[in-house]
Structures are given as structure tokens and as C-alpha cells.
Write a structure and sequence with these properties.
By secondary structure, the protein is an alpha/beta fold. Helix content is 40%, strand content 16%. 50% of the residues are buried.
Amino acid sequence: MSAVGGSQLIALTLGEPAGIGADIAIDAWLARRASEIPPFIFVGDAELIARRAKALGRNVRTVVTTPDRAVGMFSEALPCLEGETRVTGTPGTIAAPDTLAVIHSIRRAAMLVQAGEASAIVTNPIQKKALNAVGFEFPGHTEFLGALSRELFGKPSMPVMMLAGPGLRVVPVTVHIPLAKVPRELTTELIVKTGRVVANDLRARFGIPKPRIAVAGLNPHAGEEGMLGKEDAAIVRPAVETLKADGIDATGPLPADTMFHAEARKTYDAALCMYHDQALIPIKTLAFDEAVNVTLGLPFVRTSPDHGTALAIAGTGKARATSLIAALKMAEALSQRDKA
């Protein structure tokens, strides 16, 4: 399924330089022994790491190196693969030239995986508005990585966003669109295609032989038999029936307000949700510091911390690396299963 070779190295992208990406990269590296962090290479400006470490009072040695040497150096220094340009990286202050380096870092990380020099990608948070301002045409990482999959790997893909934490995995069928557009964008075909990708990756990468998928309704009480909306009967239910016909253990449409309590969560391996907040509110409530963003449906492994750039606390020492550490560990686990 993956084009990855034998590398043990994870490519960690730059993220928005004005945000907390450098902060959490530093703290993840400092936790490498206590938390058994897999070796990673920071695909970005080593001087940004050095400046931020000094501001945070962290004792970190950086080394500019190549991927083939990074694993051997990881125990003693934070390996960095330099980008094409230096970044300003002033905490809390976005600079347009830095944003171009963000895009380059994501592309470079994908190229490392394509070349077998890295086993997986972990992406630091980006600032979407800043990217749009420089002509970035994608809503976010997920869509850009889908395009890179086609460009670099020559494989068509349907990237699907999953948020995974202890005891809960959620997938929004529609993602970064206004809520008012959801009923127009939601189709039976989209639900079916998303469900198939989820089931396939739960089997292939998460090691779940017969994944169980709970499908949420769109409307309150899953439409209350048409009294609260027609979409659940007309769009969601036929999708569930198609997934069942495919041999996938799918149930629904289910009322979303009763899907996420402790007993309900034991009955499924992933929840397929109809829109962004229907999925992200429960996962962030239950596992804000531990949840990981995983992109399914790609020919390579990509994970990310489940939080934003946190510009307001960049460089203050208040950022927590918990989610990044979880993302690094999950990337390692998924890529190892990918090679099996």
C-alpha cells in the first residue's frame, strides 16, 4: 500500500513558523528517551529551532544533515533538513515569505517518503488564511497531500481526514466547508466512498480485521422519521445499505447526540460523521491533548497533532507537545504495519 522503503525516519514539517510548531518539535525531541519518541527530521530552518530553543530556555543542539544520517544522530541532536530559504519565525507574527517555506516543507517531506528516505510524514500546524493569501489553492493539508499523491506517486487517491484518540476515532464526511453548504455537498456517493476508505485503512493500517463503522445522521435524532429533515432517509440510509452490501459492518443513520457516550463508543471502531464539528467536538472534548489527525486513503502515512498554530502562545513555553508526541508514535506504528 505504501511506497516507503526501509527507513525508520519520520519527516516532521515546518508548520507555520510564527506558531508553536518549533516549540513542540523541541519539546518532543527533549522527551525522546522518556516518551520513546521515534527518530524524526525537522524539514525546515535549523536556525528557527535554535532561536526558539533559546527563547524557551531549552537546551537543544541542532544539526543540519541528510536523511540517511539523521537516525544515527537523533539521540544526541535534533536533525534538520534545511529548506530553500531562512524564515523569520517571529512568534505570533505571520510573514508572507515564511508561508512559502511552509508549502515547500510539506512538498519536501512528501518527496522524502516517495524516495524511501522517510517512513511517514508528521505535519506541524499551518495557518490556512496565510496560505490562501499567497495563492495556496487547497483548503488544508489533507487536500494538498492528495494532490501530491497524484503528482509524486502517480496514484489517484481520496484523502480522508480521521481524528483518532484513546477510545474514539471520528471521520467527517464533509470537512472545511460552511455549515450552510453541508446539505448540498453531502451525497450518498460521498458517504459510501468515505466509508470504503475508512474500512480499508482500519484493516490495512490499524490492524482491525472487521472494522465496525457507526454512521451519524445529519439532522437531530437522525431526522426523526422525516419530521426533522429528509436527508437522513434520502441520502444517509442508502449509503449505509450500500456499505453493508460491500460487506462492511456499518450501522446508521444514528442520532449523533447518543453516539459518543462511553457505552456507545464500545460498539464501533470509527464514527462516520456528516460534518466537521459533529466529528471534532466529541474527539476534542474527550482527548484534546492526545488526539491525532490521520489522513487515510494515501499511499503513505501522514499524521498531525490535533490542534492549530496557537500563535498567541508561541515562544512562551505554554505549548504542550502531547499531541505531537502521539502523532509521531502513531506515524511510526502505522508505517511499520504498512511495511508488513
